[in-house]
Amino acid sequence: MTTNHKDVGILYLVTAIYFLIVGGMLALLFRFQLTDPTLNFLNAQKFNQAVTMHGLIMVLFVISPLGFALANYVVPLQIGARDLAFPRLNALSYWLYLFGGILSIISFFQDSTIDAGWTLYAPLTTSQFSPYVGVNTGGLGLALLIASVTASTFNFVVTIFRSRAQGLTINKLPMFTFSILLTVLMMLYAFPSLLAGVVILVSDRLLGTVYFTSPEGGALLWDHIFWFFGHPEVYIVLFPGIGAIAEVIQASTKRHIYGRTAVMIAMVIVAVLSFLVWGHHMFNTGISQDVRRVFTITTIAISIPFDAIILSFIYSLVKARIQISTPFLFALGSIMVFIVGGITGVFLGSNALDYILRGTYFVVAHFHYTMVGGGLLGLLAGIYYWYPKMTGRRFDERLGRAHFVVSMIGYNLLYFPLFIAWETPRRVPIYQTDLLFWHQLATMGGLIFGLSFLIMFWNLLWSLRNGPPAGNNPWGAFTLEWATESPPPPHNFPGIPTFADGKLSFISTNGAAHHHHETHLSPYPFAVSLGSFLALAGLTVHPLLLPVGLVILAISVVGWGRERFVSHEDSIGERWPFEKVDRVKLGWWTFIASEIALFGILISSYLYVRSASSSWPAPGTMLDVWHGAVNTFVLLTSSLTVVLALASARADKRGLTTGFLGGTIALGLLFLFNKYNEWSELLHHGVTFGSSLPASTFFLTTGVHGAHVTAGLLALAYLVSRSIKGFYGKENWEAIEYFGYYWHFVDIVWVFLFPLFYLI
Amino acid sequence: MVSTSAEAVYGLFNLFLTLGTIVGIVVGTYLLYNLFRYRTREDKPVEGEVSLGELPPRQGFPAKLMISLFLSSVVVLSLIIGTFSTLEYLESPPRDAFEIRVTAFQWGWEFAYPNGLVVLGEGRIPANRPVKFIVTSRDVFHKFGILELGIGIDAIPGKINYYWTEVRVPNIYEIRCFELCGTGHGVMLGKLVVMEPSEFDRWYGSQGGGAK
Ligand code: HEM
Ligand SMILES: [Cu+2]
Ligand SMILES: [Cu+2]
Fold first, then answer.
1. CB-based contacts of A486, cutoff 8 Å, min separation 6
2. Looking at the predicted structure, is the pLDDT value of residue A149 above 50?
3. In a designed cystine with A429, which of A12, A47, B136, B202 is the match (CB 3.0 to 4.6 A)?
4. Taking each helix axis from N to C terminus, what angle separates A377-391 and A326-349, rounded to the nearest 10 degrees?
5. B98-206 is a CATH 2.60.40.420 domain
6. CB-defined contacts A:B, below 8 A
7. Which pLDDT value is given to residue B48?
8. A234 CB under 6 A from ligand 1?
9. Which residue of A284, A293, A294, A367 sits with most ligand 1 atoms within 8 Å of its CB, as the best mutation to test the pocket?
């Protein structure tokens, strides 16, 4: 199955559109219920499920993947790369996304899917208040999606840092690629927080830990974890659209956008600030007033860099030769409605106003004006814009404009009345009767907005065969993707693109240097995803699936490792600041950065519930310090053996390499054995997962760490099996080095866990 | 305005709405103006257009942008100041406020009075006297909201939150839940009956302590 970035991009596009239809249908279902509160079309439970899954699907399975459909296709082309840094990993991202979506949809057909809102507020989502199996299934679907996103994150970070054409420095990156770079950097730190939240929630539900069911510690824990992810997430869905809009404006005015550097700086500021505003979703929760003042300032302040972005887009039009086209209309429409969304965001950023606005349709209207307006409409502009590049055909311009007009009418008819009817509480099938008219208007708008997409689908499908040929550069744009054929050939460019002397040229590769063939096919990404999917479905759908899934997973992981998959980095390119770091190493570093974030959130959660609890067992009373101390010693020693294994390999001492790797395995097993003893003693004394917060936090945090040790041991077993055959030596030791990073990281985490849990 | 909190909150809301509308109209009009002014079917390139494969040059200082940002900072700063002074007022209940405990549960509201009286679904308070609501929840998150009175605060298990107001107009006001709390969320309604002070005193006096 394909691993080429362009094919994967198209797969993403088609799948995201499929989920768009699913999410849209759900919206029409509950909008229909809202035309008449006395109607019993959807009962409260069905209504809540529809609203919840609509939100989760649209945010996580539609808008973000649409952005990544374009990113997959366009980013390598824009920077002059032949593919993403890790093509198989990219295919894996896609399949995990698809299977994550399928698992979430399956949950509908169980007793009840998630029905607590896309924000998944605990304790409503704990098993006490949502005792449904479908909630677990949906949660596991999210876990697959998070895995998918995480893999994409490293892939794009490494690609954009390592595969740029010569001369394409970071500050000269095309706007779309730059926005994707910031998107993945935000994802790198936001998604581990969601992962930590889902892990804790699923653990509460399946293993009986009590993080969210102990009001004393956990009352606001979910809010903090979720919104630390959730706020960056809304910019994560927005940025690809902003990037597409910038490209479309540039192509339509034949100029670089006004204040390009200022816009880039503003985007960086937004990306950084996005991690410092989450408290504005918690203004009503009674956190301290000083904290809320800070969040009010950061939130309202974030509108300044947004101003910079939007105003620069508008200033770009001044004195330009504007050529109007479908993508340009969507870009402009998107900006117009986004202005409304941004301004109303400032209302919500005011703590005082939020006392009344939170939980009302004002919020609903605000975020649809931003997410659908800025995000989705921006991406539609992008889809129209790059369609000729992807297909080699032009779409029908008149149908495109018709789509624009109809969708803008539908859009505003759908969302503007929600501002007028703002007093309606969110997520209710029954509301104040005097607001009836506005809701009926909104439903009508929703129908029009939904139907308007049919024009686009028809247009894009029809033009696949019947559209006039597009040529290389139908918009007269100036970024690199337009310098090759439409659609581009498998290796993208006729040679290696370079900007070394300030202007694009191609280094010819007629020689042999380029023609050791690259691989574009691998069955393993699909098989790994299928295995994971079946294994997880085994937990909540049918137990037989679990062993089947695990077997497929094991076989395909080994197959992946053994497959000979060729993909090269060009010898020349712009790599600042990572000239000295090869791409696999950079990939590992990025992966470890996300792991640090995961443990950071888990440890912060522990400290948070601990500081909120009125009492906590003194050191040495619940846990035996000796177990921890011994394990610290064991694990640190194992770091040493890994270092020695690497040194031996580099000195070409193959026997010794195997010996030290084997020693590391022995130490790792000793660690787990000791841990097993410790846990069974605890359980024997009645200290269980659910007996108290101190016990829950201990078991879960060290359990996740133990799972990391176990994964490391599996990798070690693989290394040893190859080392026995004399595989690692002077010219082949990188795998041990990469493994070493991971193993040292796992050890360092323990160095934090030991004092935090045993000594204080 | 029917209450002190409504006056404070909706006054601030109107400030935001006024400034927001002005900014929105100015920016939107400017955008449309430029669009119509500079759109063209002309195919002849004009000066300064970029050709395929050209990298962005060093641009001049975006003075126009910086001036606009300065102006928006002024707007934003005034909004922050307005917010802080309103917040200060909303969060400083007078010492002598009449205290009433509101407990949310799936799906309803319970009111507990200083004298031990507990009632379900329908709270009574005196008009023209500051009243402090002490809000919590027995199960999941809820939000205690009476939009007409400018009241809204989360009801959270294990946490106690406050809000105060002084209602000027005796009437029956509708309480709604503004945080999804399960299947009964939409019908989690309650009433706040605001009575003439003398009438309230008579009613309150007649309800002996500990009545449950
Ligand atoms: C000037 C910029 C913005 C500001 C100041 C702002 C402010 C806020 C605030 C304070 C809230 C919390 C409201 C509440 O729950 O009471 C909120 C909610 C929300 N915002 Fe924004 N926002 C801005 C831009 C955006 C953008 C660009 C997006 C997405 C593309 C977005 C998406 C959302 C979403 C999804 C929610 C609702 C979350 C939920 O379900 O509760 N906002 N915004
Ligand atoms: Cu936010
Ligand atoms: Cu409620």
1. A388, A389, A390, A391, A392, A470, A471, A472, A474
2. yes
3. A47
4. 150
5. yes
6. 251
7. 77
8. yes
9. A367
Restricting to A residues 460-479, those with a Cβ less than 8 Å away from any Cβ of B are 473, 477-478
pLDDT digits (tens, 9 = 90+) for A402-439: 999 999 999 999 999 999 999 999 999 989 999 999 99
Question: Does B42 score more than 80 pLDDT?
Answer: no
For residue A510, pLDDT beyond 70: no
Instruction: State the SS3 of chain B.
Output: CCEHHHHHHHHHHHHHHHHHHHHHHHHHHHHHHHHHHHECCCCCCCCCCCCCCECCCCCCCCHHHHHHHHHHHHHHHHHHHHHHHHHHHHCCCCCCCEEEEEEEECCEEEEECCCCCEEECEEEEECCCCEEEEEEECCCCEEEEEHHHCEEEEECECCCEEEEECECCCEEEEEEECCCCCCCHHHCCEEEEEECHHHHHHHHHHCCCCCC
Kindly tell me if the per-residue pLDDT of A515 is higher than 50. Answer: no
Which residues, 6 or more positions from A509, have their beta carbon under 8 angstroms from its beta carbon? A495, A496, A515
The single-letter DSSP state of residue A425 is B
Tokens of A374: 């800025």
- Of all atoms in ligand 1, which is nearest to the CA of residue A119? 40
pLDDT at A516: 54
What pLDDT, in 10s, does the model give residues B96-146? 999 999 999 999 999 999 999 999 999 999 999 999 999 999 999 999 999
Q: Where are the domains of chain B?
A: 4-43+57-90, 98-206
pLDDT value of position A415: 97
For residue A665, what pLDDT is reported? 96
Residues whose CB is less than 8 angstroms from the CB of residue A630 and which lie 6 or more positions away in sequence, other chains included: A674
Supply the pLDDT for residue B137: 96
Q: Average the pLDDT over A475-494 and give the result.
A: 94
Q: How far is B83 from chain A (nearest CA, A)?
A: 6
- Percent of chain A with pLDDT strictly greater than 70: 99
CATH architecture, domain A615-760: Up-down Bundle (1.20)
> Would the pLDDT of B209 be above 60?
no
Measured from the alpha carbon of residue B181, the closest ligand is 3
pLDDT digits (tens, 9 = 90+) for A335-381: 999 999 999 999 999 999 999 999 999 999 999 999 999 999 999 99
Give residue B180 CA to ligand 3 midpoint distance, Å. Answer: 6
Question: Do A628 and A682 touch, CB atoms closer than 8 A?
Answer: no
Q: In b/e form, how buried is each residue of A150-174, taking b as 16+ CB within 10 angstroms?
A: bbbbbbbbbbbbbbbbbbbeeebbb
At residue B26, what is the residue type?
A: V
Contact A269, A344 (CB under 8 A): no
CA dist A8 and A12 (Å) reads 6
Cα(A284) to centroid(ligand 1), Å: 15
- Cα–Cα distance for residue pair B123/B118, rounded to 1 Å: 9
- The residue behind tokens 């797969």 is A11
Burial of A126 (0-12, 13-18, 19+ CB in 10 A): buried
Min Cα–Cα distance to chain A from B123, Å: 20
* Ligand (nearest to CA of A345): 1
> Can you tell me the distance from the alpha carbon of A414 to that of A445, in angstroms, rounded to the nearest whole number?
4
Q: Are strands B122-126 and B131-137 parallel, antiparallel or unpaired?
A: unpaired
**Tokens 């959730």 sit at which residue?**
A230
Q: In this structure, what is the dihedral angle of CA atoms A233, A238, A240, A241, given to the nearest 10 degrees?
A: 160
Predicted confidence band of residue A209 (pLDDT cuts 50, 70, 90): very high
| AA letter at A684 | H
Query: What one-character DSSP code corresponds to residue A534?
Result: H
CA distance linking residue A684 with residue A681, whole number of Å: 5
Nearest 5°: the CA angle A195, A199, A202 is 135
Separation between Cα atoms, residue A636 and residue A631, nearest integer Å: 8
